[in-house]
Amino acid sequence: MLAPIRLSLAARRAILPSPLSLLPALHVQSFSSSIFAQKEDDKSDKPQAAHFAKDKPRPVSSGKAVSDHAVEKAPPGLPEDTAAQAPPSPLPTSDLFNLRNRTIVVTGGGRGLGLTIAQTLLESGANVVCLDLLPTPSEPQWSHALQTASSSSLSLKYISLNVTDQSSVTQTFQQIFDEAPADAPVRGLFVAAGIQLMLPAVDYPVEKFRKVVDINLTGSFLCAQAFARERFARFPSAPSEGGGASIVFTASMSAHIANKGLDCVPYNASKAGVLQMAKNLAYEWGQKGVRVNTLSPGYIKTALTAALLDEKPELNDTWLQGSLLGRLSTPDEFRGPVIYLLSDASSFMTGADLLVDGGHCAT
């Protein structure tokens, strides 16, 4: 039997690798094609420690600072010189939320939330054009809005429009832009036109499904498309000209959740489509001077919801349980969020969704 061979500590160190030598060396990586260039062989006479990745290519430093490797090419479809897109000049805080010297279009502006927002825009200094399928807007809200416009020397117009009729939408927006005062160009669009038809999914007629999607999603797109087309034609150098513009789509918290107690598959699907559409339009139009965002309201106390709760009183408890504030919202509570999104206060905000639901989606 052979006696065990005992090696001195120095001998063992010469044979066994250091634990640190088993770790890969850290290098500043270059984004060039040589990122995985093979490290040159060490020609020194010193013993080489074993390395588990010795035969694998290792990154080498290019000798440049990390910032020198930043990708400078703009994404496809965007201007190459993105640095030329200078931020707007800072405004006094008192002017951040004013909408003076601009015209704003409101779809669904003949009643409900749309007409409430139209009144708010007038109070904030904007000229307003309301579009709705109704032959005439709802009273007495419309008369009150007219009084506000008159007392403030502002313009308030109403045009009956089917937002799913592309030809009519195109002609209407061309007319609006043509007739806007030179000192108050069209700079905003609030899209509130939409419908809700509740039926169990298994029984939902395809014609009604298509109608909901056509108005809520396609109609929203057609209005935004016509708005942007007119803006780009008149202000080709935007945002340096015309002050830039803002589009706000009305989405819904229903784009984020399944509503308990409500059978509304096409509505929720259409509003989810509005969210994604807004993100893509924000990408296409951001550096052309048009910001695009969405507002997602929670349950709103309106005549329509009141009628629904009369029909299904059990829904009241269900909705209140989902609200962290323990109540439903009112149309007035969306005035501030919409003014923020349409005004210069949100000048660096685009492609975003502003969720105003009383905390419903937080649980």
TrEMBL record:
Record InterPro entries: KR_dom, NAD(P)-bd_dom_sf, Sc_DH/Rdtase_CS, SDR_fam
Region (Disordered): 38-95
Pfam families for the chain: adh_short_C2
SMART domains the UniProt entry points to: PKS_KR (SM00822)
Domain (Ketoreductase) ranges: 102-257
Keywords: NADP, Oxidoreductase
GO MF terms held by the record: oxidoreductase activity, acting on NAD(P)H, oxygen as acceptor; oxidoreductase activity, acting on the CH-OH group of donors, NAD or NADP as acceptor
Residue ranges with Basic and acidic residues bias: 38-58
Entry's family note: Belongs to the short-chain dehydrogenases/reductases (SDR) family.
Name this protein carries in UniProt: Ketoreductase domain-containing protein
